[in-house]
Amino acid sequence: MAYSLVIGLEVHAQLSTRTKLFCGCERSFGEEPNMHTCPVCLGMPGTLPVPNAQAVEYAIRLGLALGCRIDPNALFTRKNYFYPDLPKGYQITQTGGMPIYDRPICVGGHMHLVGEGVDRHIEIVRIHMEEDAGKLIHDRGPDSLFDANRCGTPLCEVVTGPDMRSIPEAILYLQRLKQIVEYLGVCDGNMEEGNFRCDANVSLRKDDNAPLGTRVELKNMNSFSNIEKAIQIEIIRQAEILDNGGHIVQETRAYDVARGTTRSLRSKEDAHDYRYFPEPDLVPLQVSEAMVECVRSQMPELPEARARRYVDVLGLPEYDARVITADKALADWYEGILAAGTSPKQASNWFMGDVLRVLKETGKSIQDLPFGPGHIAALVVRIEDKTINGKIAKDLFSEMAQSGKTPDQIIDEKGLRQVTDTGAIDVAIAAVLTANPKELEGFRAGKDKLFGFFVGQVMKETKGKANPAVVNELLKKALAG
Amino acid sequence: MELTEDTVRKLALLSRLHVEESDLPRVAGQLAHVLEHMEEISKLDLSDVPPMMHPDSGERPLRADIPHQSLDRDVALSNAPKSYEGFFAIPKVIGAA
Lengths: 481, 97
Hints:
The complex is a heterodimer of chains A (481) and B (97).
Chain A: E1 4-14, H1 53-65, E2 69-70, E3 77-80, E4 90-93, E5 106-115, E6 118-131, E7 135-137, E8 144-147, E9 154-160, H2 167-184, E10 196-205, E11 216-221, H3 224-243, E12 251-256, E13 261-267, E14 277-278, H4 289-297, H5 303-312, H6 318-325, H7 328-339, H8 344-362, H9 373-384, H10 390-403, H11 407-414, H12 422-435, H13 437-444, H14 450-461, H15 468-480
Chain B: H1 5-14, H2 24-42, H3 73-78, E1 83-84, E2 87-90
Antiparallel strand pairs in B: 1-2
Helix pairs in contact in B: 1-2
């Protein structure tokens, strides 16, 4: 039987602050274990948390970008659980068991998803701040091992309503959200390093008007393709149960990348088992109207607006504008070419054609290219001042993409300077005509098409360095003989 | 307010407190007494009273995002009964949430 799919997503975005949420330990990734700990993040008795102003600002920034209302008195709460990934025995978060304690920093936003056959309004129910847990390792020796480096790292959890109706919608939402946090500079958006993590609530129902079915929460998906696969597998699992007249159990399931299955983690504990209560060590956050307005006035340009500007102001085609702005790093790089003085259209020709091709071929990210936007600008200058012609420019680009040398270095080293000196070109033409008497005769007998042959031969004779316009002009004269 | 011994066992487990079996009736009675008191308070009409989020209504400064010196790892680990290659070593807990 066919069911209709309902997906809601929870994204944990690690905020790209320098320090943790409640102490001054540095935020880190991939370092030696337990290098960034202090009495606060190790949960020593008598210590007190102090919220990081930058983290609060980032949360407000994200909330404003998603059209949320900012709560002037957001409240921190304790979520109590005994699991050794948090030494305190509780996580400081902003969700609460009782409605009056449930005061996340941002509520009531939205995202309008358009594109790739999708047109849907997604409600952003809430964005709350919380601290990340540390890392446990279970497969080294007889004990479990604990690393507290990540303990206390600031997170924003972005929660949608059950508003997505297909896997492509879910993926598009995640891509858009990732793009937004990167543009805002509030999160690095690196899924492999776990600083942009997604949980998916998946349920099935008979048709689009039926009440929502029981949801299952999927975890442990660290790439878009894993999310896609995990949801697909879960749909099949749930449909089988429903087909056989069974009931879906509300639970958390982890995606097993190696096996391509999901497995139950534990049945979802009743909310009151976490015994939420207001965090006594922290007073409610005081976010003034002035503070919100200050953040609003410094909002960076978002992807939508940037793409619009590329079309309206820079005159790029819609498609090019979308491709370049899809990733903030790409767009910044592109604008680097403009900043070095190249016209928007020429810059986009090189960018869309050659730079993106190199990225695709090498699998590198734009930051890792051996050359920068200034190299492209310098290359365009050398074409415009006729030092090199278009053909040589392409060869020079390939060389530059490999070695990272500047265009001028390569021109000098390889002697690529375009020959506009009519004397030298005349010598080459004379040599070509002497070497090809048959073709010369044919041309003079009326085979006009052979003109292209002569141009090619002269360019070859000059190793591609002759100015094609000058070659054309001189060749016409010589052939007219 | 009725409070069963099973509920007390569950609360003890969640709080990681040890309560002797023989003590369960006594603890159940004490907790029930606390709940009765809460029920008394719940009878008050507080519809005009804004909820108190924190007994201290004062403002607290936030912290600037500047790193401090973290603990020396050996010092941090010295507080734990056991460590291994820079990690805190703890009894195996996989799946025991």
